[in-house]
Design goal:
Keywords: Glycoprotein, Glycosidase, Hydrolase, Lipid metabolism, Lysosome, Signal. GO terms for molecular function: alpha-L-fucosidase activity. The protein has 2 domains: 333 residues, Alpha-Beta Barrel (TIM Barrel), CATH 3.20.20; 88 residues, Golgi alpha-mannosidase II (Immunoglobulin-like). It is 30% helix and 18% strand. It contains 13 helices and 15 strands.
Length: 449
Amino acid sequence: MQVPRCQISLLFCLLSCASSFGTRYTPDWTSLDSRPLPEWYDEVKFGIFVHWGVFSVPAFGSEWFWWYWKVALKPEYILFMVKNYPPGFSYTDFAPDFHAQFFDPDEWADIFEASGAKYVVLTSKHHEGFTNWGSQTSWNWNSVDNGPHRDLVGDLGAAIRKRSLHYGLYHSLYEWFNPIYLSDKQSGFKTQEFVEKKAMPELYDLVNRYKPDLIWSDGDWEAPDTYWNSTGFLAWLYNDSPVKDVVVTNDRWGLGCYCKHGGYYNCADKFTPGQLPNHKWEKCQSVDTISWGYRRNMKLSELMDLPSIIKDMVYVVALGGNYLLNVGPTADGMIAPVFEERLRGIGAWLKVNGEAIYSTKPWRVQAENATVPVWYTSKSSTVYAILTSNPMQNSFKLLTPKTSHNTVVTLLGNPEPLKWAPLQTSGLIVLLPDLPFSPAEAWTLKLDA
C-alpha cells in the first residue's frame, strides 16, 4: 500500500523533532547512568577545588570545626574556644567576621589560570549551611545578607569564565544543624520537608542563576537518594535545565550511590584506585593534607610539596582520572602565598609537559617499574612516558613500548630528537640529554610511532 505524501512528511517531521530534542532521561538510575559524559570533562584533566565559608573565620583544625566543637566534642576545639572567645559565643557569631575584604575574583582567576587548571569548583554551601550566594531559603545565613555582603558564587564565576575556564559548584545536600533537616532525620527520613523547602530549591536556583558546568554534590551519606529526590533533579538537569548539554555531575546523590551512580565517580575523598577503573573518575586532594578549609595552625610539613602534587596528578591521569586540587582561602579573601606558589609551580610544569596530560587517554600499560617510576599516557599514536624522578644516568630503558624504524623519541621541552635503540624483545634504550632543572622532579619522553 502506498503511504500518502502528507503522512510521509509528518513522519519525517516527527523523526527530525525527536532527533533535535535528543535523548530524554527518566528519573531512574538505569536511564540517568546511560547519559554519556560530556567530552570536555575528560579532556581537561586538572581542576582547582575551593573550600571557603564561615569555617574560614576560626580557621582552626578543619572545615568541620562546628561539628567537632559541638558534636564530636574534640578537646582541642573546645579548648580553642574557651581560650579565645567569651562564654556564650556561638558558631553563627563567626559569620560577621567572614569579611572577604581582600577578595579579588580576577586575582584568584589569574592564579587558577596560571596553575594550568581548566576547571574550578567553588563551595556554594558546605555542611554548615551558610550559602555563598543570596539564597532565598537561607534567611540571613548567606554571604549577601551577612559576612561579605557579596555574591561570592557570582563574582568568582564571572572572573573564571572571562578566562574560558569551566566553572563548577560544590553543594552539600545536608546541613548539620538545620532544624528542618533534623526533623526529617528524626522521622527516619519518612518526611521530606528539608528537601522540598531547602535542598532542592537551592540546587535549582544555583543551576538557573549561575549555569554551572559541573555540580559537585556532597553531604549525601545519611539518607537514601529517594529522600533527596536526586533522580528527579538529575532528570531535569539532563533534560530541561539551561546546562543540560554540558553539565557534569559526580556520584554523591544518596546513601550507597557513590562509586555506583551519577556522572563521574569521586567515591571516597582522596580516592586512589590500585588499577585502571572502568568508569570515569576524579581524585579530590588538598594541598593541606589535614584540612580542606584554611587553617591558621597549619604547618609546612603538613602540606604537599610540588613534586608530590605532580606525582599524584600524573598517577591519576595515567589511570584515566581527573585531578581536583583543593586550596582553602582565608576569611578575608586571600589565597595564601604558600598555596599560590604550589599552583604556579604546577602551571610551570604543565607549560612544558601539558601535552602528556590534557586530552590524553590511558595507554595499554599504565606504569612500568624501570630504574625510576614511569607512568604512561597516550594521544592517538603518540605515547608519553612520564618519569617521576631523575634517573641520574645518560641511558634509560623503557621495556613496554613497541617501536619501529619510524619511531621518534623526544624530551618535552627539548626540540631535538633523542638517539635510541631497540631492545632485543621489546622496548628501547634512550640516550638522555642533561635533564633541565625541574622543581617538580618530573620529565616526559614523547614517543611518536
